[in-house]
Design goal:
The complex is a heterotrimer of chains A (122), B (478) and C (296).
Chain A lengths: L1 H19 L1 H12 L7 H23 L2 E4 L4 E3 L2 H11 L3 H6 L1 H8 L15
Chain B lengths: L10 H38 L12 H33 L7 H23 L12 H23 L8 H24 L9 H34 L6 H15 L13 H28 L10 H21 L3 H7 L3 H31 L7 H33 L5 H53 L10
Chain C lengths: L3 H27 L5 E2 L6 E2 L5 H12 L14 E10 L5 H14 L7 H8 L8 E6 L2 H13 L3 E9 L1 H4 L33 H4 L3 H9 L17 E5 L22 E5 L1 H11 L20
Antiparallel strand pairs in C: 1-2, 3-4, 3-5, 6-7
Helix pairs in contact in C: 2-9, 3-4, 8-9
The chains are: A mainly alpha (122), B mainly alpha (478), C alpha+beta (296).
């Protein structure tokens, strides 16, 4: 008799422990699933996008080489390449100095005037 | 404890098994009751003498009042109710307490939790949510302690030979589950790293407050009353069917009240609460009818003893619950919301209903469990009149003052300072009532304290006699 | 019943149902809210608070201010109000007759002719004059147009009604869920031992007023029962030279001893910043009203 009673008591206690956590479990489940984005998520996303754009543009302008204005002889070079080129060229200072004025005047040349009639493709 | 052959225990053994757990729970509860009432008086002094605690952050009104309310509920009501529950389960199962050491450890854990929580609030670490001000550390301690006591209670309930469950069983077992579930939910949502956004916090807070102060208190208090009223009156409970009806309607409808009508939330929430509150009138009236039928015609005089306490408590339940549910009526709330009326109703629920029933139950149980008479039996009567008179003097002016304050608040032509002044006259009477209730609670504390000391002295005397007893001759080796 | 299982089931279903309705439902609806749009504007509501004000909310919580102050305004409805601001070249008596004849002849206005006539009875021409105050916005639009046609300037507004709204400065509309989006914890309060604070930043926008009120409430509000929060300030000896910039200027009865000054602590400053940030005067979809624009 006592054995059966003890069994029932243990079952009751264990049952209680088991069900006691139901609502705690529900609360944890709701907290994990109901995760709305932060209130300023839109603004944060927009600013991340803008930052990414800036980074790409920076990367491009710092690490790639390109011709900016062929008619005036203006190019973009990464700094290390420019240093190397300048060091090479200026090993012979008089030769490097020879065309310096001409290059500077070409770079400061005026833009060609716009045509009177706009082209058909504009 | 040697069980007889057919495995029934005599009441003395059952009571003796409850002795230490109940002393631990009741002793702490009585101490917190006295401290809670004292802190409440200190808080209200801010209204009579605003500059009294100007330099002392610990006793400023906001912190002191929150700490006092939590001391009353978590410090006094819950441990006392748990103690009474353990004893009732043991008696109804006709077997000693299962796992008797667990509630002792749990009681100490609980009181440490209450201490940590109270000190945290007074130091300024309150969480800011009503009835949930204890920070996470204290809340975890309280939850763990409650689980331990509940496991012992449920095991005792499971140990019963007679498998029939009485109405007290339903109410009290449901109360155990109810607290564990609502307290865990509210703490996990609100007192955590990522609380819900915005006013959803307030909604969860109102859900918890209703579930604790209305439904849980009703389940525990009525469960205890439905045990003692028939026992003391010598008549069976009015009807098991009515009690089942009251139980089911209480849990199903009572849980929906809570959202105040003027709340800044979508309109469906206060509407649902208003309907829940309206339907909750049914179980309140049913419980009143059951109690009246059980008590009426009983030829037992109460003479200021536990019977008086419990009858007053049940009457307090009916009145305070009707007032509480009335707050959810949109028309009434236009006047009563944000006034002292709500404070008065809450204090009536805590002191005038739960406090009275628990005091009566403690006075009924303690002599049996300790197997000795109360050291100051005449203090019980004094306790009753101080408590009953004090609570009425405390609560009724708050209700009246709240109504007058509310009526003045409705009239925009009345400057705000006048609404406060209107309530102030009533507050002076109310604080006097609080003082009387404090004196009453001192009677309870004195009784329990002296009884504990007498018991411990008795134990010491036992040990001393055993140690200094002359040895039997054969034991002395020659 | 013989089995505790049925009690468990009843309790579970009962509490579970109320959990679904009063915890899960509001979390799904309100817990995922984001900023809303202000009516007739591109601005969003609410604005996140500045650093000091956000920390001030924690001081508010720690001191238990919500025990005496609420931060929610209630409203009983909204009214459409039509006000005559200029009568142009008409005499008040002619205008009265004209309006009354309008309301009895135009079919849409006939139901409201009594209300309008009652408002106009005894009007001696002083402006502005409220012509109609009620629920029908068609009346306001129609009457306003007809009067404009004869050169009478009117103003149509939506105003909230209610005892809280009627108190000056307490707020122009009820509090709605959107107002508390950035609050953690939300301090709605449940007792008005002190006035409601949801619009205190508009009523008393001066930081120094807030600081002085915290240090000595009775120096600014006679017979106030608010306790003095002197522990938020430090009284120290005045340094030689000019007064400290942030020392409080107090009337004689509340000033400290000579040679001493009262300086707010960081917490006092944060609390004052929080209080000054409490403004709720923007119209929203759920609580529309016509804001009062500055006089031209």
């Amino acid at each position: 008799m006592k054995f059966e009673q003890t069994n029932r008591a243990t079952a009751a206690a264990l049952g209680f422990l088991a069900v006691a956590g139901i609502f705690a479990g529900l609360a944890v489940a709701v907290k994990l699933t109901l995760n709305p984005p932060a209130i300023d998520a839109d603004r944060a996303a927009e600013r991340s996008r803008a930052l990414a754009e800036i980074r790409v543009a920076e990367e491009k302008s710092l690490a790639t080489a390109a011709t900016l204005d062929a008619s005036r002889g203006i190019v973009r070079l990464p700094i290390e390449a420019a240093l190397k080129l300048a060091a090479e060229k200026w090993r012979n200072p008089s030769a490097a100095r020879a065309d310096l004025n001409a290059r500077a005047e070409k770079a400061a040349a005026e833009l060609p005037k716009a045509p009177e009639k706009p082209s058909a493709f504009e | 404890m040697n069980p007889t052959e057919n495995n029934t225990f005599c009441p003395n053994e059952i009571d003796a098994s409850c002795r230490v757990p109940l002393l631990a729970l009741f002793g702490g509860a009585a101490l917190w009751l006295v401290l809670g009432l004292a802190l409440g008086i200190a808080a209200m002094l801010s209204f009579h003498q605003p500059d009294l605690f100007a330099g002392c952050p610990f006793l400023s009104y906001g912190r002191a009042q929150a700490a006092a309310n939590d001391l009353l509920f978590y410090g006094f009501v819950i441990p006392a109710a748990l103690g009474v529950m353990l004893w009732i389960f043991a008696r109804l199962s006709r077997s000693p307490l299962a796992l008797p050491l667990v509630p002792v450890a749990a009681a100490n854990l609980w009181h440490v939790g209450v201490l940590v929580g109270t000190v945290s609030i007074l130091l300024g670490f309150s969480t800011g949510h009503p009835w949930l001000e204890y920070p996470r550390a204290a809340a975890v301690l309280l939850f763990a302690a409650f689980m331990l006591v509940a496991v012992s209670a449920v095991a005792t309930m499971g140990f019963r030979l007679n498998r029939e469950l009485y109405p007290s069983h339903w109410f009290l077992f449901a109360a155990l589950l109810w607290f564990v579930w609502s307290y865990a939910t509210a703490n996990l949502f609100l007192v955590s790293g990522h609380p819900p956004r915005g006013v959803a916090q307030a909604v969860v807070g109102w859900w918890l407050a209703n579930n604790l102060i209305f439904v849980w208190l009703a389940l525990a208090g009525v469960g205890i009353a439905f045990y003692f009223l028939p026992k003391i009156a010598g008549k069976p409970l009015a009807s098991s069917g009515y009690a089942l009806f009251a139980f089911l309607t209480l849990v199903f409808f009572g849980a929906w009240a809570g959202i105040p009508p003027g709340a800044p939330v979508p309109a469906w929430l206060p509407t649902v609460s208003a309907f829940g509150a309206l339907l909750s009138l049914i179980p309140v009236i049913a419980i009143g009818i059951i109690a009246k039928k059980t008590v009426c015609g009983a030829k037992v005089p109460c003479r200021g003893g536990p019977f008086c306490f419990i009858k007053f408590g049940v009457l307090g339940f009916v009145v305070s619950s009707l007032l509480y549910l009335g707050e959810f009526c949109p028309r009434a709330s236009r006047v009563l919301e944000f006034t002292w009326f709500q404070t008065g109703v809450t204090q009536w629920q805590l002191l005038g209903f739960a406090g009275m029933i628990l005091c009566g139950a403690i006075y009924e149980i303690l002599p049996r469990v300790m197997d000795r008479e109360l050291p100051f039996a005449w203090l019980v009567k004094l306790n009753f009149f101080l408590f009953a008179g004090g609570t009425l003097l405390f609560v009724v002016p708050l209700l009246l003052g709240g109504v007058e304050q509310g009526l003045k608040l409705r009239d925009a032509a009345v400057p705000f300072a006048d609404t406060g002044a209107a309530a102030l006259k009533f507050l002076r009477v109310s604080t006097t009532g609080q003082l009387l209730a404090l004196l009453g609670s001192l009677c309870l504390l004195l009784n329990i304290l002296v009884m504990t000391i007498q018991w411990k002295l008795g134990l010491v005397k036992c040990v001393v006699t055993a140690v200094t007893a002359p040895l039997n001759a054969p034991e002395v080796k020659s | 019943m013989k089995n505790g299982f049925w009690v468990f089931l009843a309790a579970f279903v009962a509490l579970g149902a109320s959990w679904l309705g009063l915890v899960y439902g509001p979390l799904k609806q309100l817990g995922v809210a984001t900023e809303t749009k202000v009516l007739q504007s591109d601005a969003k509501w609410p604005q996140a608070r500045t650093g000091d004000a956000t920390l001030g909310l924690q001081v508010y919580r720690s001191a238990g201010c919500a025990a005496c102050h609420t931060e929610q305004i209630r409203q009983t409805g909204a009214a459409n109000v039509l006000t005559i601001t200029e009568t142009g070249s008409h005499q008040p008596a002619d205008l009265k007759g004209f309006i009354n004849s309008l309301s009895s002849s135009v079919p849409e206005l006939m139901n409201y002719s009594n209300a309008v006539a009652a408002n106009l009875a005894g009007w001696n021409g002083e402006l502005p004059k409220v012509l109609y105050r009620g629920a029908a916005d068609t009346v306001v639009a129609l009457l306003g147009d007809k009067l404009k046609a004869v050169g009478v300037k009117t103003e149509a507004r939506v105003v909230a009604t209610g005892a809280d709204i009627a108190r000056p400065g307490w707020g122009a509309r009820q509090s709605v869920a959107a107002d508390y989006l950035y609050d953690a914890p939300v301090q709605l309060g449940s007792l008005r031992a002190g006035p409601d604070l949801s619009n205190i930043g508009v009523r008393s926008p001066d930081l120094n007023w807030q600081l002085q009120h915290l240090y000595a409430p009775r120096s600014l509000v006679k017979n106030s029962t608010m306790p003095a929060f002197r522990f938020l300030f430090s009284v120290r000896k005045k340094a030689d030279g000019p007064d400290a910039a942030d020392a409080l200027v107090l009337p004689k009865e509340f000033a400290p001893a000579t040679g001493q000054e009262v300086v707010p602590t960081t917490e006092a400053r944060q609390l004052a910043a929080y209080l000054v940030s409490l403004k709720a005067g923007v119209p929203l979809y759920e609580a529309p009203f016509t804001p009062i624009t500055a006089a031209k």
